[in-house]
Amino acid sequence: MTTTPTTPTAPATPTYRHNGMVCTDHSLAVPLDHARPGGPSITLFAREVVAAEHEHRELPLLLWLQGGPGCRAERPNAAGAWLRRALKDYRVVLMDQRGTGRSTPADRRTLAVHADAAAAAEHLGHFRADAIVRDAELLRRRLCGDRPWTVLGQSFGGFSALTYLSLAPEGLERVLITGGLPTLTGHADDVYRAAYRRTLAHNTRYFDRYPGDQALADAVAAHLAAHDVRMPSGERLTVRRFQTTGITFGTASGFDTLHYLLESAFVDGARGPELSDTFLRGVDAVVSFAPRPLYAVLHEPIYAQGGRPTDWSAHRIRKEFPEFDADGQDPHSPLRFTGEMIYPWQFEEDPALVPLRETADLLAQRTDWPALYDLDKLAHNNVPVTAAVYYDDMFVDRDQSLATADLVRGLRPWITNTHAHDGVRADPAVLDRLLDMACGRI
Asked: Are residues 86 and 195 in the same domain?
């Protein structure tokens, strides 16, 4: 592999060793608004990881941009397959994107310090991919000076990588993207219209694999419609919230995860069949946004550019797909699970989101979002880019991804039906393939 070596960085905090890895934690102050570098600042946290056997070697840096939005970086104790592979050749930087993890958090508690919902919405307007990229550039200069680094972007991290190519290509040696080529010009409506079609197809695949689960899912829905069922957290589980467990369909083990959850759904209680605590606790772990509220708040704004608001796109477009209507006219219609969609009613039913409802409404109506992608720069790109496009990806549309690939000069797509959306975490061969493509070995 041809790479630009970097000098191992001096520890910002005491270095510690874990499971064959050497970890160094870094924190730095970054502007909340990069257009106002002298204004308020927030803390950005990143963890630099190197294989213990390479601790004193000069290795290039690789920045991992995780999926999301609003999800913290992976922790080395739960390393995905990609990390072990990357550590053979790189020092890996795991950056908690602003608002997540050990970076200054943004949630119902911290956002409550703002005077009102409008101030909170203004604050969160600085938490999209453009700000994440500018944070990354400050971190890069802190860790390796003027030397460029490699970026590996998964899902929303791939979206951010394209923003990186648009705003600061000089900071990039190469870009690797997995399941993360977004539409560059489409509206959120286009994204969710395609997503509903893919989600219906995944429902069909799921019930073909587990045909007995249709009756079980329908029985759960009927029970929820007839009873006030509370999860162990005290929150009510409604039919429409139960439907959102279909978000698990997008991963390699997602079908099995939901199947084994459903098989534990009912127990014989004192008043007849009841939903078990095992089932309800498992559902709560899937449907609650307490660990990642920004995922819900910013899920549609990550697609917003120009003067058209997102206006709760997934909620509006759902009306075009009556198959998902659990309250429809036909009581015998089979239940269909939804996927990666966010709805305004979730800000009424999820306690982690309830205080953020008005803020989310204001973001949904915002019209002055800046552009995230520079089409001219992408058309003249000189940074090597390779991208895994998963043929049956439930989260990112294949056709939109390939249209984007055509707009980025030199981007080499690898189209595969071997992996689901989380392929890079499940199989080190995904990163192997992208590196071989990027280095011209295939």
From this structure: no
Q: What is the 3-state secondary structure (H, E, C) of the chain?
A: CCCCCCCCCCCCCCCEEECCEEEEEEEEEEECCCCCCCCCEEEEEEEEEEEHHHCCCCCCEEEEECCCCCCCCCCHHHCCHHHHHHCCCCEEEEEECCECCCCCECCCCHHHHCCCHHHHHHHHCCCCHHHHHHHHHHHHHHHHCCCCEEEEEECHHHHHHHHHHHHCHHHEEEEEEECCCCCCCCCHHHHHHHHHHHHHHHHHHHHHHCCCHHHHHHHHHHHHHHCCCECCCCCECCHHHHHHHHHHHHCCCHHHHHHHHHCCCEEEECCEEEECHHHHHHHHHHHCCCCCHHHHHCCCHHHCCECCCCCCHHHHHHCCCHHHCCCCCCCCCCCCCCCCCCCCCHHHHCCCCHHHHHHHHHHHHCCCECCCCCHHHHHCCCCCEEEEEECCCCCCCHHHHHHHHHHCCCEEEEEECCCCCCHHHHCHHHHHHHHHHHCCCC
Range of the domain at 304: 188-252+287-365
- What is residue 81's predicted lDDT score, i.e. its pLDDT? 87
- Check residue 105 and give its pLDDT: 96
| Tens digits of residue pLDDT in 191-231 | 999 999 999 999 999 999 999 999 999 999 999 999 999 99
Strands 149-154 and 91-96: unpaired
The confidence score (pLDDT) of residue 77 equals 81
Residue 7 lies in a domain: no
What are the residue numbers of the active site?
155, 368, 421
pLDDT (0 to 100) of residue 18: 85
Predicted local confidence at residue 308, as pLDDT: 92
Q: Does some domain include residue 411?
A: yes
N residues, the chain? 442
Mode of pairing for the β-strands spanning 411-416 and 385-390: parallel
**Which ranges of the chain have pLDDT less than 50?**
1-12, 329
Please report the pLDDT score of residue 79 as a whole number: 62
What's the CA gap between 424 and 393, in Å, rounded?
A: 13
pLDDT at 63: 98
Same domain for 124 and 223, yes or no, is: no
For residue 319, tell me if it sits in a domain: yes
